[in-house]
């Protein structure tokens, strides 16, 4: 699914920023302290994962998580590795193991919701992400929740969620794209059309933003307006195909049905 979450693959693993506190001497002292066996294995697995050997990295993450000194983050690392390898079912098991040790671990819950989304269980993913988003409290966590709400047919709630994400990351084109799609599904031209117009003309918009903007125009029945000023970089044939797909989605009888059809198109 490519809802970036645009509607990378939509639920690709996102790196969450962490704050550094304390004096430089404290940092140096911490870094000089001997790592636990689990932490040493995780560091080795991280290095191997960067080289692209996902099978070996997963095996090392699993070994690290099985050690007595392992923290819940070891299971989260295992789940993240499985997600990168395209195995959401195995990832979900790892995240659930982390949550068994730390029920309020936001990153584990965020990963579980993402894994459920990738597996196609949008409603379960939405519930998990609704719990995770305020715990993690980042624009990406709210963006993931908004995608889940959109694909579950809860487009009004999704627009509120995307609005929260945009407060944290104003002008983020991925989030604005997702909000435009959510609004377009329910025919909310007042929100969707200005965002789609921005995406078509923005100098920093990538082709995937423009493709999704074309779909928004189609969902709103504004294909002729788009053809009069088509986005740069997209061939006419592709624009016509996207508009045709959007027209088919628009013809569905309910927002829920349109959301399911959109998920199939963006998948």
From TrEMBL:
InterPro entries: TPR-like_helical_dom_sf, TPR_rpt
Entry-linked PANTHER family: BARDET-BIEDL SYNDROME 4 PROTEIN (PTHR44186:SF1), PTHR44186
Pfam families, sorted: TPR_19 (PF14559)
Native species: Mesorhizobium hungaricum
Protein name: Pilus assembly protein TadD
Residue stretches of each TPR repeat: 72-105, 139-172
Keywords recorded for this protein, A-Z: Repeat, TPR repeat
Domain of life: Bacteria
């Amino acid at each position: 699914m490519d809802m970036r979450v645009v509607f990378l693959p939509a639920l690709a693993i996102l790196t969450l920023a962490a704050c550094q506190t304390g004096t430089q001497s404290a940092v140096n002292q911490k870094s000089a302290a001997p790592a636990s066996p689990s932490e040493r294995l995780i560091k080795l697995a991280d290095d191997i994962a960067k080289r692209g050997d996902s099978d070996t990295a997963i095996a090392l993450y699993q070994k690290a998580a099985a050690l007595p000194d392992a923290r819940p983050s070891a299971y989260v690392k295992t789940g993240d590795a499985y997600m990168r390898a395209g195995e959401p079912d195995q990832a979900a098991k790892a995240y659930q193991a982390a949550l068994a040790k730390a029920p309020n671990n936001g990153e584990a819950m965020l990963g579980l919701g993402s894994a459920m989304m990738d597996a196609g269980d949008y409603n379960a993913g939405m519930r998990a992400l609704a719990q995770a988003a305020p715990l993690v409290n980042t624009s990406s966590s709210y963006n993931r929740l908004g995608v889940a709400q959109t694909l579950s047919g809860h487009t009004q709630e999704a627009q509120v969620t995307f609005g929260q994400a945009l407060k944290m990351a104003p002008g983020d084109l991925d989030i604005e794209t997702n909000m435009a799609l959510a609004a377009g599904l329910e025919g909310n031209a007042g929100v969707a059309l200005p965002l789609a117009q921005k995406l078509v003309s923005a100098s920093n918009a990538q082709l995937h933003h423009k493709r999704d903007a074309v779909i928004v125009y189609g969902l709103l029945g504004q294909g002729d307006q788009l053809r009069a000023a088509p986005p740069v970089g997209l061939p006419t044939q592709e624009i016509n195909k996207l508009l045709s797909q959007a027209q088919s989605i628009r013809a569905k009888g309910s927002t829920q049905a349109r959301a399911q059809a959109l998920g199939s198109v963006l998948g």
